[in-house]
Specification:
The protein has ten helices and five strands. The chain has a three-stranded mixed beta sheet, with helices on one face. Strands 1-3 form a two-stranded antiparallel ribbon. By secondary structure, it is mostly helical. 17% of the residues are buried. The chain folds into two domains: 149 residues, no CATH class; 129 residues, no CATH class. It is rod-shaped.
């Protein structure tokens, strides 16, 4: 099915055009009836109003297009251009009114055009001006609300993408095997120690919350990072028992140091996976943070087997 140019126009602009035309139709009808009954009871008054209304319906489209073209320019340029457009609109509509009036009277020579336009400016200019001004105002109002809707839509889409990225980050930072092993440990603890199972669930919840918050991109203090690492170690100790020990040596002056969140977790995870897990008797993991002059040094060590050279 072929798509026409009219089909591509958003519904809001079609409704705006229709409502403006209806509004002007009512105004032209009332003005024509008033002039016919109280000022000039000539037939051409009604015809004049009819033809001017048709011309105005065409000009509404042209004014919309003119305004749409101008929005790419600075505000001062738009205002100056609309002032010029207002003058041109007045001249065209006034000339059409003069032509239709003379045509109905059998005159087409524009003999009194200048006097007619001056007379229009004295009593009818505002009514002609406001047709242009109202149409331009409707355009900018619709465009403003379209912009608000577009921003809300973009904000909503950004929020969805943000959630997707959070989930993606969580998947990349938290090893699925760690989650599965933790859930298995919780399942076992439920039968043997419900209190311990509750603690593990709380610790797991804290880990996930920290991982999700880490997506915000803000730096965190070393104190919060160490709390996260200790939660991670405690959960691993549920699985490995006495096979996994952890110690830390942290310079107290470093606790307020700001660093990217979860930057130490991959190092601790590698120590567990490649150092402690393969070793039958287990081992110990250590975290050292020290300050030397203006530098902060981080060290993660373990006494496990380490990564096989073939890997």
């Amino acid at each position: 099915m072929a798509v026409t140019l009219v089909d591509r126009v958003p519904k809001i602009w079609k409704w705006a055009y229709l409502l403006i035309c209806i509004w002007y139709a009512i105004n032209f009808l009332i003005s024509a009836i008033f002039e016919y009954n109280f000022v000039n009871p000539a037939a051409y008054v009604l015809w004049n109003a009819f033809f001017l209304f048709e011309a105005l319906c065409v000009f509404i489209i042209l004014i919309f297009l003119w305004s749409h073209w101008l929005v790419r320019f600075p505000l001062i340029t738009q205002v100056a251009s609309h002032v010029g457009g207002l003058v041109v609109f007045f001249l065209i509509m006034g000339t059409l009114s003069y032509y239709f009036t003379d045509y109905m009277d059998g005159l087409v020579y524009f003999v009194h055009w200048k006097e007619y336009m001056i007379d229009l400016m004295s009593w009818d200019a505002l009514r002609i001006y406001d047709q242009y001004i109202i149409t331009v105002a409707v355009y900018y109002i619709i465009r403003y609300f379209e912009g608000l809707q577009r921003k809300e839509k973009e904000k909503s889409q950004l929020a969805i993408k943000n959630k997707e990225m959070q989930i993606s980050l969580l998947k990349s930072q938290i090893n699925p095997h760690f989650l599965f092993n933790t859930l298995n440990s919780i399942s076992t603890l439920i039968h043997s120690s419900k209190e311990q199972a509750r603690k593990v669930i709380t610790q797991l919840s804290d880990i996930f919350r920290y991982a999700l918050d880490a997506h915000g991109g803000e730096l965190v203090s070393l104190l919060h990072e160490v709390d996260f690492i200790e939660n991670y170690i405690r959960i691993q100790q549920v699985r490995f028992g006495n096979r996994l020990k952890f110690q830390k040596e942290i310079d107290p002056t470093c606790y307020n140091v700001q660093l990217p969140p979860m930057i130490l977790q991959p190092l601790i995870e590698n120590s567990v996976k490649y150092g402690i897990a393969p070793k039958e008797e287990g081992g110990e993991i250590g975290l050292i943070v020290r300050r030397e002059a203006k530098r902060i040094f981080f060290e993660v060590w373990d006494d496990g087997l380490g990564i096989n050279a073939k890997r």
